[in-house]
Write a structure and sequence with these properties.
The complex is a heterodimer of chains A (128) and B (486).
Chain A lengths: L3 E5 L3 H13 L3 E5 L2 H10 L4 E5 L7 H11 L4 E6 L5 H9 L4 E4 L4 H20 L1
Parallel strand pairs in A: 1-2, 1-3, 3-4, 4-5
Chain B lengths: L4 H14 L3 E6 L4 E4 L1 H7 L3 H4 L4 H5 L5 H18 L3 E8 L5 E12 L5 E10 L1 H24 L2 E7 L4 E5 L2 H5 L3 H4 L10 H5 L1 H12 L1 E9 L5 E12 L5 E10 L1 H45 L6 H28 L7 E3 L1 H8 L13 E6 L7 E3 L1 H17 L5 E10 L3 E7 L7 H4 L17 H11 L3 E7 L3 E9 L2
Parallel strand pairs in B: 12-14
Antiparallel strand pairs in B: 1-2, 1-5, 3-4, 4-5, 6-7, 6-10, 8-9, 9-10, 11-13, 14-15, 15-17, 16-17
Helix pairs in contact in B: 11-12, 13-14, 14-16
Chain lengths: 128, 486
């Protein structure tokens, strides 16, 4: 199970860590440091999954999610956030069409397994 | 010009006739020789008819009159026998059959010497006055009833010195003092000692100056308990508008105070929650990087033992911080229900640590988890589902006071539902109780509220799922939850 993933996070150490963690799972990883950059990149290149931070400078994670879904409805987007379990954010993300929600406060192993679970579920669903 | 005796007599008679009172004069045998118009009006008998008759006879206009007259007669006899004046209040019945309350003054008329000449009775019709008094009393009683039913109000009055002269309308209930214990005591007994010197004189002064005063103050009950009230004081005036004292109305605001306190507490918690949430986010990002890096390093195969040990320490300590932040975030979480994609295996795992909060008795219970690894996801409210599992696990625990085994099994049912079976090896549920087990307020436990299972049932139902029970007395119980796939 490997994916081509676009990681969107404004913090460099977080991006680097996510890259290493995902590479261990045989994923191909590219970066964007803002919502604007992410939208630009997905316009030029195809990805299977976008791992999108909620708190971003410039346009917010939720707005970025909305715009991605407008342009590429089938692109799997998984939200990741330091806010942890937050019902309001989860509800909004779901409403805008994200396929999963990961808290940076989860244990590392769980973050990876959840990522895989969300991505697989979304992909299986799309195939049907 | 000096009026003749005859003329004076005429004037006196005229005066007597027009007096607003019953006037009757009779000799010691009771024979009437003088009466006025009022007597004529009340009895319906003319003067000619009355003169020469016995007084009690002429006042007896109806059969019913006799009883009332008997008492008046006794008082008159007393005046005759002892030659002393008397006052008497009694009922007579007039020719219209109406009761009239008459206040009599009975004066024996003594001749020059000791001998008694006759008796002069002057009666004031006080029926209207009495009616007014009665209606006032009725108002008073009604107010008393209203006040005692409202309970949070008390009304009392003091004189100018601050001594309680009236203590009614809810006061006994509010303060615990009975009327006879407190009337004529200084109102200071209802105040805290420190207020008696400062606050109380200020209240009196304000009322004198401004006519009224209102303040929030703590009064003292008989048992010493503090009583937060809004105390309103106004002037107590007599008919000539002279200040006679002070009227107090105390409104018990204990409940409001408690509510305010609760709101304050919850606002405080909300503020702490907000702070915690903001802080948690700032901690989570760097902590994520630390933990992640450590995990990646630990995954390296070629590590010196010492390095591995120290990385483990970092990992454990980072995990401590992570859990702490997690608790802070949970604390600040909103309580509105929301649906999310849930892995039931994770949900069950997440409540296991919560069980320790419920102070479960230390029974010897083995927990067996048989989890289906590739369990499909369901849509649900994580908090509510956690509540269901906590409830069911506690029930299972409590049914196995002799020790036993709690088995939690997950799997799928008809490829459409996630099925969770929670079975214990406890005492089981009697067949006749089984059908009532999900009814609210039904409990087989000694101190059970009977709400736990009904809440579980409602939660599962709201998730479009089902909650069933299978049990055999003596062999244990199994609860089966089925929740539809996403």
């Amino acid at each position: 199970m490997s994916y081509k993933v676009l990681v969107v996070d404004d913090e460099e150490p977080v991006r680097r860590l996510l890259e290493d963690l995902l590479k261990k799972e045989k994923c191909t990883v590219k970066f964007a440091t803002s919502g604007e950059e992410a939208l630009d990149i997905i316009g030029k290149e195809d990805f299977e999954v976008v791992l999108l931070d909620i708190k971003l400078p410039g346009i917010s994670g939720l707005d970025t999610l909305k715009k991605i879904k407008e342009r590429k409805p089938y692109l799997i987007v998984i939200m990741i956030t330091g806010f942890g379990y937050n019902e309001e954010l989860i509800a909004k993300s779901k409403e805008l069409g994200c396929s999963g929600y990961i808290g940076k406060d989860m244990p590392i192993s769980q973050i990876i397994s959840n990522f895989k679970l969300f991505a697989k579920t979304a992909r299986d669903k799309a195939k049907k | 010009m000096i009026a003749s005796t005859k003329e004076i007599e005429k004037i006196v008679f005229k005066l007597i006739d027009n007096a607003n009172a019953l006037v009757l004069y009779f000799d010691i045998n009771g024979t009437v020789s003088l009466c006025n118009k009022v007597i004529e009006n009340i009895t319906g008998r003319s003067r000619e008819e009355i003169f020469g008759k016995n007084w009690s006879y002429i006042l007896a206009t109806q059969k019913d009159s006799l009883a009332g007259l008997q008492m008046l007669k006794a008082v008159v006899d007393d005046s005759i026998s002892y030659k002393r004046p008397n006052n008497f209040e009694g009922i007579i019945i007039d020719r219209e059959k109406q009761e009239r309350i008459i206040s009599w003054s009975i004066t024996p008329i003594v001749k020059d010497s000791e001998a008694l000449e006759g008796v002069l009775c002057i009666g004031n019709d006080i029926t209207a006055l009495k009616e007014r008094e009665a209606s006032l009393k009725k108002i008073d009683d009604t107010l008393n009833n209203i006040f005692s039913s409202i309970k949070e109000y008390a009304l009392y009055v003091t004189n100018l010195d601050g001594n309680i002269t009236y203590y009614g309308m809810g006061s006994e209930i509010m303060f615990g003092w009975q009327k006879n214990e407190i009337v004529f005591k200084h109102v200071g007994v209802l105040h805290n000692p420190e207020d008696v010197q400062s606050q109380l004189p200020k209240i009196f002064q304000q009322v004198r100056q401004c006519g009224q005063y209102e303040t929030e103050i703590k009064l003292v009950k008989k048992d010493g308990g503090q009583l937060p009230v809004i105390l309103s004081a106004t002037k107590f005036l007599d008919e000539q508008e002279n200040l006679k004292g002070y009227i107090f109305i105390a409104k018990d605001i204990t409940e409001r105070k408690e509510l305010e306190n609760q709101i304050f507490q919850s606002e405080k918690l909300a503020a702490i929650g907000k702070l915690a949430a903001g802080m948690a986010h700032e901690i989570n990002n760097p902590l994520f990087v630390i933990s992640g890096r450590v995990e990646l390093l630990l995954a390296e195969k070629r590590l010196a033992n010492k390095t591995r040990q120290e990385l483990s320490i970092i990992s454990t300590q980072a995990e401590r911080i992570r859990k702490l932040v997690d608790q802070l975030l949970k604390f600040s979480r909103k309580k509105t229900p929301s649906l999310e994609v849930v892995n039931i295996n994770d949900t069950i795992e997440s409540v296991m640590p919560l069980l320790s909060y419920h102070k479960l008795p230390d029974y010897n219970i083995e927990i067996v988890k048989e989890f289906e690894k590739n369990l499909p996801l369901i849509k649900g409210d994580l908090n509510q589902l956690q509540e269901v599992f906590v409830n069911l696990f506690i029930n299972a625990y409590q049914s196995m006071s002799e020790g036993g085994r709690l088995t939690i099994k997950t799997g799928n049912y008809l490829k459409r539902f996630v099925q969770v079976t929670i079975s214990d090896t406890g005492g089981g549920i009697a067949a006749e109780d089984l059908k009532n087990i999900f009814l609210p307020f039904f409990s087989t436990k000694k101190n059970g509220t009977g709400l736990g299972l009904s809440i579980c049932y409602n939660i599962i139902k709201a998730h479009n799922g089902s909650l069933d029970v299978e049990s055999q007395s003596g062999k244990g119980t199994a609860f089966i939850i089925r929740l539809p796939f996403v």
